[in-house]
Design a protein that fits this description.
It is built from eleven helices and ten strands. The structure holds NADP nicotinamide-adenine-dinucleotide phosphate.
Amino acid sequence: MIGQRCYGKRAWTLSEVCFGAMRMTLEQTGGLLEKLFEWGVDTHHSSHEYDCHAIYLKRLAEARGEGRAFKHVVKLANPHFGESKFDPRGFEQAIDRELHDLNADTLHNVQWLLRSQPINDRDRLEVLRRDREQIEPTFQRLLQSGKVLSFSSFPYSTDFATATLQLPAVSGLTTYLNLLEPEYAEFAAEETPLLAIRPLAAGKLKSAYVSRLDDDMQRRFTEFAKAADSHGAIDLAERESLGDSPDARWPNLLATALRYPLLHPHVVSTIISMRDLAQAEQTCRLAAGVQPDFERFETLRAAASLLPSFADCQPREIAR
Ligand SMILES: NC(=O)c1ccc[n+]([C@@H]2O[C@H](COP(=O)([O-])OP(=O)(O)OC[C@H]3O[C@@H](n4cnc5c(N)ncnc54)[C@H](OP(=O)(O)O)[C@@H]3O)[C@@H](O)[C@H]2O)c1
């Protein structure tokens, strides 16, 4: 069973595994949200920008029809690409539209994105400085109304993360955190809860993917597994039973990657796409019962420095 964690010092919780709705297909998701709810996953991350959003809303309506109450983490951008300033009215309308579409009274977390075009920190930081007087009161109004329980930012860069966290209404980060993208772990603290996106690095942290990398990169994954093992960060007793597949060369990679963000005491939840019931069952089995263990988190983080970066981790046929 997947447990719940408090969002920082708040009295409310999210499930430690959050269902990410970005890759849903109609064919493979019948009954998926219901089963996940039964296994303890009551929190969903969604965005009206995802191509499959209509599929998610359909499956959500079916699942809610059975009397289940879900918690929502919603991704919302303002300003959007091509817009030059924060639009308070547009943002509040977008929140109302989300509440309506999700048939919810409240959004537990709004992952706020400040977009710029071209994408760069200079413009983003400038908009943040200039529009702060509109952004902060708008967020505070939404918090006071109860429509939103918390705001987190999607940071883009560590400088931007630092700047957004200076807004009193922004309490945390909802960002990538996995073995290939560990940078934002620095920010996670009791007063800065973190929701960790893509524990499997968008599917790169699976033996089947690693076996498509060139020999040097494959060796780096083997070195990582050895380093993690030698420090006891991987549970050897589980080696035989929890592999990706019996003949995988990195048998514990999936389990290690899934659990890694949850070892951090201030990660509230890890946001993962699950294609079908079989993946959902495996994910929940592997992620159930992970206790925060900062020492183990740091050991894995050190071992992960042996791995290629997210961008470099490309199969031979794509990298060429
Ligand atoms: N900027 C943002 O805010 C942002 C960006 C990206 C993602 N997200 C959110 O984060 C969620 C996760 O991102 P993501 O899908 O890119 O990365 P991810 O969750 O790290 O990887 C998901 C992929 O891993 C595979 N997988 C999942 N469970 C598995 C299992 N038990 N065994 C084997 N393979 C398994 C599946 O690939 P196969 O189907 O190929 O097997 C799945 O599509 C998204 O749904 C979305 O909600 C947010």
